[in-house]
Amino acid sequence: MGHPPLEFSDCYLDSPDFRERLKCYEQELERTNKFIKDVIKDGNALISAMRNYSSAVQKFSQTLQSFQFDFIGDTLTDDEINIAESFKEFAELLNEVENERMMMVHNASDLLIKPLENFRKEQIGFTKERKKKFEKDGERFYSLLDRHLHLSSKKKESQLQEADLQVDKERHNFFESSLDYVYQIQEVQESKKFNIVEPVLAFLHSLFISNSLTVELTQDFLPYKQQLQLSLQNTRNHFSSTREEMEELKKRMKEAPQTCKLPGQPTIEGYLYTQEKWALGISWVKYYCQYEKETKTLTMTPMEQKPGAKQGPLDLTLKYCVRRKTESIDKRFCFDIETNERPGTITLQALSEANRRLWMEAMDGKEPIYHSPITKQQEMELNEVGFKFVRKCINIIETKGIKTEGLYRTVGSNIQVQKLLNAFFDPKCPGDVDFHNSDWDIKTITSSLKFYLRNLSEPVMTYRLHKELVSAAKSDNLDYRLGAIHSLVYKLPEKNREMLELLIRHLVNVCEHSKENLMTPSNMGVIFGPTLMRAQEDTVAAMMNIKFQNIVVEILIEHFGKIYLGPPEESAAPPVPPPRVTARRHKPITISKRLLRERTVFYTSSLDESEGFKSLGLRGPFPGSERVFLLQTFVCGVILC
């Protein structure tokens, strides 16, 4: 089981559990940083110590073998499984070629050391800077808050207002620092899958091709490299798609943090101070409180433990809640509650006036209810006009633009997209738009189609079936995966199933021209996964499942003929192989377990360039660390284009 996602909403609460989970991420970051340093150190040793080459390879192999990827979520995609197993495969391969005394190519440092060093300095180093800012802003905020809460309510109103503004400013700065830090540390955790593996993969490719005695080994390695490169590219595409959704969620959290509540969580939770009376006077004790409105249960966890005694959480059942009059107590933001378990009144102090208002609202106290305004994008419907719009878009795309390079990936102008949608969905004359007009280019039409589908009041594949579809995509039994999705398609409402068939048939036609438009089923899955499917809740955990939404769409495209030939025989239960039949499961790609053959020594300088084009069939341009592969393959004579 991997690390649980860090929800942006936890940044606002800053609970002890959030801090503990964040600490796990920080430990993993340090482990990764140390691992990268080890790889860089061992790689340099391999390049410089040619006389001790065999022992250097052995050490490097052991370093790779020892590392295991941690991941976010509960399941890996097939591509992520390939990536997770890749270091083990690399290590086995290095042990195999140890006796062949292979030599490093002169540009090994550019292939391995520099990309890892850049990732460590730019990504991990930047994350550590975010951590420092997060800790500094947190220390400043809580220090100011403690002083602020001890202000007397008898001070001048202007002084109190000024103090409130200062606390709100520091709270906002700390919240933003927390959001930025959580976003960055999760991004590094996810992106390391390809940013660490890619340089090692490029390094190995160069290592094997540079030695004329291992040409046959290189020929064996190329198919594995191609498959792993595709897995890396697919994982990168899934990552980019997920990152866009997470950036939107982060933006919404900044605008209204209290509106993004997670299902199954308490109605409200946060820090409160409790007035406790002792023989020698009164003290205020800090608690982390969680209130569940349905059961009226208030759970209070003490933050300041008494010497010699460990206090556990205290569960109380609320009877009523009322605001405390300012003139009756020398503290601000106070309210009183009564519970079934404790006699008398309990006085609580919130962190601010707005915070007290939220607690009062949750507890049905005598305090005006406040709701933050929430803006919502205008939703579209799956109706006759919508079907007409989709059919018109598909018709013009398949007639004039199906061979357009980057079809659906290249976005149109927002102004033109809105203009087309407003014209077509005009209530006065819906559908009265000439798509052959020169104003509507192909990228405007494809962007408009995606916008319409993404802004339906309910996604095409419905909220009701979302979890079942994602669960099916997570199965490692390939037969069950296909059978379950086949069955679930026929559980969709009729108009949804009709729309889905219309769209998937079109995407199949697009993919049939992938040589011209470069849009494969995998690419179309990345684009239409978040468009045709989406979770009902806005959470980081839901965003992490986008890669499985992409896989569902990819399966629909690849198996369109079988799925839409008709419903399965038993639509209520997806087909499962008979008990004595071995299930067809995904197996990680491998090179170390291949059948070895008797090698012949060749003395050729490099692979033929045209063969590189034919064997890999990849096209650029490639951003960021993928440029490493361009340099590496140029030296080896195998060019990725």
UniProtKB/TrEMBL annotation:
Its main location: other. It holds the Pfam family BAR_3. Residues 380-564 form the Rho-GAP domain. InterPro entries: AH/BAR_dom_sf (IPR027267), BAR_dom (IPR004148), GRAF_fam (IPR047234), OPHN1_BAR (IPR047267), PH-like_dom_sf (IPR011993), PH_domain (IPR001849), PH_GRAF (IPR047225), Rho_GTPase_activation_prot (IPR008936). Residues 265-368 form the PH domain. GO terms for cellular component: cytoplasm; dendritic spine; presynapse. The keyword Isomerase does not apply. One of its GO terms (biological process) is regulation of endocytosis. Keywords: Cell projection, Cytoplasm, Endocytosis, GTPase activation, Neurogenesis, Synapse. Interacts with HOMER1. Interacts with AMPA receptor complexes. Interacts with SH3GL2 (endophilin-A1). Interacts (via C-terminus) with NR1D1. This is Oligophrenin-1. It comes from Homo sapiens. The lineage of its organism: Eukaryota, Metazoa, Chordata, Craniata, Vertebrata.
